[in-house]
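Postdoc handover notes: sequence design on the structure in folder B. Input tokens:
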């Protein structure tokens, strides 16, 4: 009986870990790519979408509307090394983002992941090492499998959050723009 329960738990755990990496795969150029296609009610204003995503999604450095009505840009994701008590920055993963619209659907593509390590500088702060970008596909030789899997898991969770933000905006842009995330104003004169 114990063996059967252990087998069921092992199979469930294996299927959960396998399910997370299905959205991150290799494209035609053998580069890791996060690719999602979801329904969109209508073609949105690309300028407004770019402005919203720049505010709502952390790590987006540059985003602008393209001539074809989509949005393109770049951003970074910080990756951390976990210690017993705290974590420290291990590096950053730079990426290119592209959002295209067609036939009441949109596709979100995060690709061209480039890892740049951080190093402690003379002031004791972790800073980017100059001229040290390495494509994520080539990091398998330099990292352990556990570290690489943690990077891939981080990218999948970041991509899912990014996709959810875009989907929320596309389903109801007026409600999101009417309630910007920020501090509430308090009237101290009328109490």
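Designed sequence:
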């Amino acid at each position: 009986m114990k063996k059967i329960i252990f087998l069921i738990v092992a199979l469930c755990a294996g299927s959960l870990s396998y399910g997370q990496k299905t959205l991150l795969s290799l494209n035609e150029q053998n580069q890791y790519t996060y690719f999602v296609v979801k329904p969109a009610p209508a073609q949105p204003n690309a300028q407004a979408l770019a402005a919203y995503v720049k505010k709502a999604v952390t790590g987006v450095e540059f985003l602008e509307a393209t001539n074809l009505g989509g949005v393109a840009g770049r951003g970074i994701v910080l990756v951390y090394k976990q210690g017993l008590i705290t974590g420290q920055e291990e590096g950053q993963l730079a990426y290119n983002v592209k959002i295209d619209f067609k036939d009441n659907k949109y596709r979100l593509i995060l690709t061209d992941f480039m890892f740049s390590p951080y190093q402690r500088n003379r002031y004791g702060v972790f800073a980017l090492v100059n001229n040290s970008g390495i494509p994520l596909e080539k990091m398998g030789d330099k990292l352990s499998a556990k570290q690489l899997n943690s990077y891939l898991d981080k990218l999948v969770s970041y991509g899912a959050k990014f996709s959810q933000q875009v989907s929320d905006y596309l389903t109801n842009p007026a409600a999101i723009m009417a309630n910007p995330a920020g501090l509430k104003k308090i009237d101290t004169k009328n109490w």
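Context for whoever picks this up: DSSP finds four helices and eight strands in the chain. Don't rerun without checking with the PI first.
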